[in-house]
């Protein structure tokens, strides 16, 4: 791993420019390429010598080939949030010491004349990933869920994409739903820094077409309604021969010489190679601002424009006065 990280500091890598943004790219070491998620049907607690002290079954229903999908450690409350494909994907809060369930997620949905209780669920299918992280104060989680058929929907039968949940009680506070049929979004990575949530996707370029692109999503939790700050833009990179890599496989936030930097692995659309790509977080944030302004201008103009997400847009917002909130 020392060799792999050493590559990030290489000074003799050629620098290419795509869309006027600096991108450094090269072949990803094999040990840093994505791995298949291990199928582990239990939560386990280890001691300081890494011996297992306790195991707790995390699934009681539909547990065949159960896969852990979300594990968040909330040190402030001495709890962990777990979501797996078993138990129909229901997410739970567990005590850190005993590993017992303290709270199940819950959400009351009105359907006709009935009120139905729905929980936060991830896909019960192992090939549909979910991404999540705690907010700055560890009081909420933001979670993005890749929606397959039969996934959690709202009263209009629209699949849930990104939502925010309070942890005590474990209940939904806000959400975004998919607004189009036959539109695929796959959430492959996420992280939080400060009051920003970042999610990374593979999604179809145009509705009812097979071509895929990768996108960066940013949500600003300092907004009174965080999803009104939602913005995304396409991200891709090229190697020194001009070969394009458009499918993001994983991404994380690292430090390079003290600079917050996004490191991501990209593959080609034909999956015949992959590279490791780095880009300063400041550049990502600048593109986010430009994208948000363009989105608001298009959405609030007389030009017909429809988002693939069911968003609440405030077209009376003063873009200039809101720019300081975006940084």
Automatic annotation (TrEMBL):
SUPFAM superfamilies: Sema domain. InterPro entries: Plexin, Semap_dom_sf, WD40/YVTN_repeat-like_dom_sf. It comes from the Eukaryota. GO terms for molecular function: semaphorin receptor activity. This is Uncharacterized protein. It comes from Dreissena polymorpha (Zebra mussel).
């Amino acid at each position: 791993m020392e060799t792999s990280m050493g590559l990030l500091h290489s000074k003799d890598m050629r620098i290419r420019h795509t869309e006027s943004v600096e991108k450094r790219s090269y072949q990803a070491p094999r040990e840093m390429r994505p791995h298949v998620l291990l199928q582990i049907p239990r939560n386990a607690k280890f001691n300081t010598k890494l011996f297992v002290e306790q195991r707790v079954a995390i699934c009681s229903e539909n547990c065949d080939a159960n896969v852990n999908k979300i594990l968040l450690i909330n040190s402030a409350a001495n709890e962990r949030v777990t979501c797996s494909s078993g138990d129909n994907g229901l997410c739970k809060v567990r005590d850190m010491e005993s590993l017992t369930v303290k709270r199940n997620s819950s959400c009351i949905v009105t359907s006709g004349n009935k009120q139905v209780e729905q929980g936060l669920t991830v896909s019960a299918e192992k090939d549909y990933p979910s991404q999540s992280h705690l907010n700055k104060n560890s009081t909420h989680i933001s979670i993005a869920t890749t929606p397959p058929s039969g996934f959690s929907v709202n009263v209009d039968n629209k699949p849930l994409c990104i939502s925010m949940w309070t942890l005590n009680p474990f209940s939904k506070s806000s959400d975004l739903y998919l607004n189009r049929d036959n539109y695929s979004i796959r959430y492959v990575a996420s992280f939080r820094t400060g009051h920003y949530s970042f999610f990374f996707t593979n999604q179809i370029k145009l509705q009812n077409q097979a071509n895929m692109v990768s996108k960066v999503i940013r949500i600003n939790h300092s907004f009174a309604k965080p999803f009104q700050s939602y913005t995304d833009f396409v991200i891709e990179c090229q190697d020194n021969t001009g070969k394009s890599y458009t499918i993001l496989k994983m991404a994380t936030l690292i430090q390079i010489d003290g600079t917050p930097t996004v490191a991501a692995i990209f593959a080609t659309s034909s999956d015949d190679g992959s590279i490791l790509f780095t880009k300063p977080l400041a550049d990502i944030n600048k593109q986010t601002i430009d994208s948000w302004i363009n989105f608001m201008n298009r959405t609030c103009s007389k030009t017909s424009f429809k988002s693939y997400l069911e968003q609440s847009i405030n077209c009376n917002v003063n873009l200039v006065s809101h720019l300081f909130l975006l940084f």
